[in-house]
Every structure is written in structure tokens, then in C-alpha cells.
Design brief:
This is NtaA/DmoA family FMN-dependent monooxygenase. GO terms for molecular function: monooxygenase activity; oxidoreductase activity, acting on paired donors, with incorporation or reduction of molecular oxygen. The protein folds into 2 domains: 313 residues, Luciferase-like domain (TIM Barrel, Alpha-Beta Barrel); 90 residues, no CATH class. 39% of the residues lie in helices and 15% in strands. The strands form 3 sheets. Strands 1-2-5-6-9-10-11-14 form an 8-stranded parallel barrel, surrounded by 7 helices. Strands 4-3-12 form a 3-stranded antiparallel sheet. A two-stranded antiparallel ribbon has the order 7-8. The chain is of the alpha/beta class and 425 residues long. It contains 14 helices and 14 strands.
Length: 425
Amino acid sequence: MAKKQIHLAAHFPGVNNTTVWSDPESGSQTDFASFVAFAQNAERGLFDFLFLAEGLRLREHQGRIHDLDVVGRPDTFTVLNAIAAVTTHLGLGGTINTTFNEPWELAKQFASLDHLSGGRAAWNLVTSSDAFTGENFRRGGFLRPEQRYDRAQQMLDAARELWLSDGAPIDHHSDQFDMVGRFPIPPTPQGHPVLIQSGDSDAGREFGAKTADAIFSRHGSLESGQEFFADLKGRMGKYGRRPEEITILPATTFALGDTEAEAQENGHRIREAQVSPQTAIAFLEQVWGRDLSAHDPDGPLPDVDPDPGAEITRGRVRHEKDPVAVANRWRELAEAKGGLSIRELIIETTARQSFVGTPRQVAQQMDAYVQADASDGFILVPHLTPGGLDEFVEKVVPELQDLGSYRTEYTGPTLRDHLGLQKPS
């Protein structure tokens, strides 16, 4: 029986504490040369695609720009169309919000990218109920959370109608959108872009099972990955879809070394650089809703409980809606781990799934994970811009190929070819 093949994608790093800006190898997140170097290296590694995150507004923390944000997210479509000119096979994914955009313009932008790249466009659909961001995009600020996926579905339905219209007249009317006319762009090489989705709520999973070609999963451990894999693919039958029509890709990091001990040391060094003392306090304040600057990041968690009604950070944050419950879980975790300090706890709770070891060990870990149906592959989130993929491509990719679970060449020109997907009709 042939081994299941691993899919790899890469997230271009550039904003938030994932990127280690203090590293001497860290470069610009806005210079086009950085995008070129990153994309061409991913293509050398035969990756399916790269994707760019979305940043519509800088977060504010206690009335100031959040310490972990960096001014500089160039326009997604501008960057991807430029990358298309310096790559040949690599898929090009853009994170574009369904809450703050309109289908006619968005469909035209993605259709243009798919034509200009020869069929390599992908759309990472995200929703938002963030009033802070929405102030600049919608009258009234935002949609209520329960309306987000309804608008997302209507947005996708409208965009698909445009992409597949082949010049036929459009007369589309729904709760959210009204469109009349003929779409000005002919059918694209892929029919329409590959659709990526990342929602993890029940509504998000249903939306993904119904619509997505790829899922950006948050489930990093083997057990939670297997549970998510089985649940998401188990939902697809009701929509007339087969499990192989969705590629599940959890985000992951990696740390390499010539020995396992050296790799562990490198991994620890990276995590400490990602979570500085001030970063640890900022993350804690997001949950506690209080000014905790007087607390020692190398000391214990605060005795005081969070303020559930406080809004100390404006913009997207990582934590659940119940800060008291989060604080209680963190206290239990800190105690169970032998009395973790604030900084140690934040390192523990914000870490992504990470593969650590020699190149051969990392390849074997990834292969075992995919063969056990915990995912179909991975989205790598490197800690350096733009050279974060270099060592992986040079050392781990050949090991994956040696294991027989990774391609040795691209077998088609489009992203749908890379993912084994049929052209929609």
C-alpha cells in the first residue's frame, strides 16, 4: 500500500511575537526581496502554497499600539500578483475577510490573480465580529458573531456564481448582496481559487466541511489532531463530498540540530526569544483585563482574578471569552508543572505544535503524524523573515522524500493539481 503523501504550505512571517525580530538574521517584512526569497525557497522545497495573513488594523493595548504588532502589512493582492511573476508552481494564498468586503470586487481580484499566476490562487476565508476593526469598514462597525458565517456563505455563493458564470448575465439577490450584470473576467485556469478555511467552532467546522478545499487547523497534538481530522471529514458526507476533497493542515513550527540535544536547546532559545518578559506581561494583561506592569514576569501569577468586563486590548486576541475560566486553567497548569512563572506559563500556553530534532527525526515525526490521520500535512510558521524556511528545505525535505512520503517534483501547473483537487463546474 502506497504511503500517504504529505502536503506542505508556509505562512510568511512578519507581525506578532512569532517572528524573532531580535535575531541578527531577521530581515524586512515589507521589502519585496523578502517575499521573493521566501517564496522561491518554498518552491524549491516543492511546497503546495504560501499564504499571507490579514492585518486590517493595528491592535491597541492600554491605548497604545500593541507591542507585538509591527507597522507593515503590504496589500495582499499586490504582493501575491508580484510573487506570481517570480515563481512558477507555488500556490499563492491570501487571507481576505468575508465580513468587510464585497463579492464583485473580491471575485475580480482573485480571478485576476488566478489568471496572472496560471492557476495558483487560493483564498483563505476569515470572518470577523471585531467592532474595533469594523469601524473602518462597515456602518455600524461589525456583524454579530451569529451572523458571520451566514454572510461568509452568501459571500462565497455570490463569488462562485461570478467565477463560474462564463459571461452569462448575473441577477443575484440575497440578504447581504445584490448584483446585476456580466462578470468582466473569463473563467480562470482553476475554475475558481482553492478555498481555505480556519474556523474551529461548530459553525466553522460545518462551513469548512461544506465549502473548503483546505483547512488551516489549530489542533497540534496527535490526539487532538486525530479527533479534529475524524470530526471534520466525518461531516462532509452530508454535503455530498468525499474526505479526500479537503486537505487538513495544522500550523507548526520546527527546531533543528545536528543532535537531538542541540535541537532541544535551539527550540528553547527560540521560544524564549518569542516570549520576552514584556511580551509575557502583555499576554497576561489580555486575559486579566488589568495593568500588571508591576508584576515580575519571572514570578507567580497574580492572586487577583481577571476583570471580565475590561477591554484592555482592542483588536484580535488569542483567548476565549471567559477570562476567569482561562485564569483558573492557567493556575492549575502552573501548579501541575511545578510552579511555572508568568513567562514560563505564557511560553507553555502560546506555543504551537513543534517538531524538534535532527532533520531525520523531524521528518519521521511529521510522517508518523500524517500516516496516523492526525492531518494531511502542515503549514510551517517559521520564526525568521525571510530565511525561516531555508534549513527545513535544505535538510528536512530530502529526508521526507527518502521516507517516500513527499513529492520529488511538481506534477501539474495549478494549485488544484498539487492538492489533488478536481476543477469545479
